[in-house]
């Protein structure tokens, strides 16, 4: 799809300096611009590239005045970075604006869906599944029985949504995510083996949640595993059965949260964090990468380490960790001198 400088300026409420009919069909960094591409300049450190870029159109701040000849057409706006971000959002909406039902796909007779559905090929809608308006289901997605999905939800290729899952409005689930698989519930038996504990609950995902690729969220043993509104989960995260994650909490990749732990609102959890089960983690907690959490955490704590302790204490202790060989050597020398003086 091609856009002219005049069309882009209209979207951004900007001013064209150069050829209003210049056309672009792709985006590029300013130093990598080629004919037919659109780029932007907001950081003065990159200004030298505007004199050599081959990009057909460049978005710049309204105050920018070139000091040498340029070949690119300019679109002047109040905030180049913000305008380019807005344009990326429009571009993404256009690119992902698919509708229709591709074949082969399977829709159960009792399934219901709203307006502007996109259902990619080799996808499956189970018995009594209910989908809202503007739902986009990419190829090879499985939607199980009795699943409820709200409006403006996008589920990318290969995701699996098990039965009874409830997903709110304006959510995005990326490729390979698995929502609603059995929780890890096994009871030991007298002979030393393990018996499966049936997992009969579900997963509830509220509005404006983003779930990364290959992230897994297990169904509850009973009741619900709950992901509150505004939560953002990175790729390759494990959320166990009966966990609850509070509003607007963000969790980075490869973190694991064990069963029945409750995480508060507005928390920030780094990558590769391990959190044991049946804990309560307060609001506004920040946990640094690779930390291990084995106890309840109060509101507003910042933690690091494994097992984790307060961030300030960790940094003070780390000075001693690094100097430990010298400290041990000094202690040995001290002990030798003490023994020699006896």
Describe this structure in words.
This is UDP-3-O-acylglucosamine N-acyltransferase. Homotrimer. It catalyses: a UDP-3-O-[(3R)-3-hydroxyacyl]-alpha-D-glucosamine + a (3R)-hydroxyacyl-[ACP] = a UDP-2-N,3-O-bis[(3R)-3-hydroxyacyl]-alpha-D-glucosamine + holo-[ACP] + H(+). One of its GO terms (molecular function) is N-acyltransferase activity. This protein is α/β, with parallel strands linked by helices. The protein has 2 domains: 93 residues, Udp-n-acetylmuramoylalanyl-d-glutamate--2,6- Diaminopimelate Ligase, Chain: A, domain 1, CATH 3.40.1390; 215 residues, UDP N-Acetylglucosamine Acyltransferase, domain 1 (3 Solenoid), CATH 2.160.10. It has 4 helices and 40 strands. The strands form 6 sheets. A 12-stranded mixed β-sheet has the order 8-11-14-17-20-25-28-31-34-37-39-40. Strand 39 and strand 40 form a beta hairpin. It is flat, with a radius of gyration of 27 Å. It starts with a strand and ends with a helix.
Strand arrangement, major sheet: 8-11-14-17-20-25-28-31-34-37-39-40
Count up the domains: 2
Runs with pLDDT <50, length 5+?
A: none
What helical percentage do the residues reach? 10-25%
- Terminal CA distance: 89 Å
What fraction strand?
Answer: 25-35%
Mean pLDDT: 94
Structure class? alpha/beta
Number of strands: 40
CATH class group of the largest domain:
Mainly Beta
